[in-house]
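Progress report, Aim 2. The chain analyzed during this reporting quarter is listed below.
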Amino acid sequence: LMYDSGLETGDAALYGSSYHYERLGQSSGVATNEPSSIREENALVSFLDRHKQSYVNAILFGRDKKQFEGPLGESLLPAPSVGHEQVIVKGIYKGKTGTGYTVNEYHTVRTYPFDRVFDHDGGGNAIQYTSLNDKTYKQRDRMWIPAVLINYKVDKNWVSQGFRFMINKMHGQPKKVASYGYEDQNSTLTPYLAASREYEYFEPGEKIPLFDPEDNSITHEHLGKEMDVSMEMRKVSQKTFDFSIELDVNVMIQLPPIITISAGDFSLLFDQSSLHTHATTKVIKYPVVVKRVKNFQDGIWSETENLAFNELDGRPVMTRTKDGFHQLELLNSPSGHGGEFYSLNFPAAWAYPEMGQKSKDPTNANMLNQNAGAIVSYGDAGNMLDGNWFTNPTGVVTANAKTFKKDWNDADLLAAYGAPAATLTDIWRPSADYVYRSELIDANQSATGIYKGGVFSDPIAFFDWADLSQNDRLHWIKNNEVLKYSPHGHPIEERTIVGTHNAVRYGYDHTLPVITAQNAAYETISFQDFERSTVGSDFKAHSGKRSLHFNNHQSYSVVNGMVVNQQLYEQGALLSLWLNSHYPGDPIATNPDPQLHVLSTGGGSLNFPLTKVARSGEWQLYEGEIKKADWDDAGISVTDNLDLILDYNLEPGEQVFLDDIRFQPLDASTSAFVYDVATLRLVTQFDDQGFGLFFQYNDEGQLIRQLIETEKGLKTISESHVNIPNISD
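Predicted C-alpha cells for the chain:
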C-alpha cells in the first residue's frame, strides 16, 4: 500500500493492490492433501473392496472381517497445500487513471486429481493394477496321492500383481492471465479486456511430437518420462512329514510267560505347501509440456503452437504462429489468407554430434541448449508440415546459421593465463554467424498482395555444417566470426562482415575487460592502470589508487613483446598516457622543457616524441603517433617484435608519475576501464580521446556521483543520494 496526500485538498489517494481468491461466491482454493493428523478428511481415504467371499467359503471358514484402507499409493500424494484456481488482483485506486485488474487462473488437483482417468493413447486410469482373478498372473502346482497307508500332497502357488501410478505436475500451472482496464461510458467505469494469455498443455502421459533431423519427419513419443520401478518378493512354505505305526503287545504272566504281538495301524504322510508372491510397482512422472499459447494484445489475437520438440532436451524446435490476418478474406485470398509463421530451430547437437547427450556417449559435451541455426517461413508456401517442404523450402522470411568448433589452441594465451591446453581444445564454442540473403517478393506487386510479400522469391539452400565449402557464399553471408577465445571462455577477438577486427583484453585476474577496441586485433592493443601491478605506487593516481613512479622505474616497458601486424605498419599506432610532474616542497616549480620520448629496445631504432595535448588538474595527457615512415626509418617491418620504453629528461628534485598508458592502432577506436581492486566496481571509464568518466560510491556500494574529466578539471554530471532514516530502538 502507498498513500499519497496530494498537492491540493481532495487529491489524497491510496494506491496498492488487493487480492481476491473467490469464485462464484466461494473460495477457489483446492487442497492437494490433508495433514497427517486429519488424513481421514482426504476424500481418497476409504476402505478398498476385497475379493468377494463366496457363500460356501463363509459357511466353512466364517465371514471375512479383514479390511484394507486406501488409497493405493498414498505415500505418493503431494504434500498438504492449498492452490487457488483463480486469483484476482485489483488496484485499490478506482479513478480514471486506475490500473484495472488482472485475473489469474490456474490448474489444480480438482481438474487433475491423483486418480484422474486420461482418455488419450497410453493413458487410462492414473492408478491401475492387475487383477488377481486373471489366471495370467497366477500359477498353481498341485499333486495329491492318497494311498491309504501312504499319503503324498504338494500344493505350490505363485501369484504376481503389478501396480502403476501416473503422477502429474499440473497443479499450479497457469491456465489464463487476463488484464482488464476501465473505460468511462456515460460517467460509468466499464471494464474491458486489455490483454490476455491462455495456455494449453499436452495431457500427462500423452505422446509428444518429436522432430527427427535425419529425415525431417515428426514422430510421437513420450518426452521426459521418468519411471521408478520397485519390486517385492515373498515366499511362505511349509513341509510336514508324519510317520506313525501302532502295534499291540500282550504279555501273560505265568510260567513260562507268553508274549503275543499283533499287527496294528501304519501310516506315512508327506505334505508340502508354499505361496510365492511378487509385486511390481511402477511410478511414472511426466513433465508439463505447453502445447499452445493464445495471446491478445492491442485488439489483436495471435496463437503460437509447438508443433515438434527436440528429443535431446525437450525444447520446442518447430512452432506455428497465427497472426491477426489468418483466415481473413484478403486480396488474392478469397478463401481465407494463410497467415501462419513457421519457425524451425536447429540445435547444435544435430550438426555436431559431439555436443550431444553424455548419456549416449560419455565423451559428448552435453551442450544441449546451443542452437546452430533457425528458419522462419510464412503462409501456405512456407508450411513446414507439408511433406515436400524440406525438399523445396519456399516462403522463407529469414534464415541464419551458426558454426561451432573446439580447437582454439593458442600457446601465447595459455601461457598468459596459466591455463591448461584443454581449456582451448576440449570445449565447443561458437565460431561464426551466417545469415541468408536473397531477393524478396515485392509486397507492392498487385498480383501478390501486401500480405504475401517480404519472403524470398526462390527456395533457399539449407546450410551445410559438415562441409562449409558447399555453402553458396552469394546467399549464405558470414556476418561475424570469432577468432580468439580466452581460456576462461570470453571471446576476445572477432572479425566483422566488412573484414575489420574487434578485440577486448581482460585484466584483474582475467575476469574484467580493461580495454575494448573496434578495428583492432587483440595483439595490437594494451592498457596499463597499475592497480594490481607490482611496480605500482599508491602515492598518486590519475584513476583508481595506484600509478607508476617513473623515477624508480625508468626502464619500464610500456609495450612488451607485441608483434607489428599489417594494420600497425600501414595505418600507424597511437600511444597515450597521463603524466604528473611535481617538486616536493616547491609547489610552483616546473620542468622548463619536458621531453618525453618512446624508444624501441628490440629490433630497430624507433624514437618518437610524445606531445602534451591536454591538462586536467595536476595531470597532463601526452600522445604520440607512429606513422609508416617512422617504422621504415627505424627499420621495423611487419611481423617484427615491438618493445617500447619511455625516456624523460628528469630535472633534479622532480618526481614523475605515469598512469593509464594505452597503445592501439591509429585508426582504431578504444575504451578503457579501471576498477576498484577490493570490490571490483568500475571507478573510471576512458573514452577514445583518453578522458575519463569517474564513478563514486557510498559506503553501501551505491553509485552516488558521476564526474567527467575535462581540460578544466572534473565536472559533476549526475549525483543522487539515498536517504535511509535511522530507526531508534
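The chain has six helices and 48 strands. Residues 6 and 212 are 63 Å apart (CA to CA). These observations will guide the mutagenesis work planned for the next reporting period.
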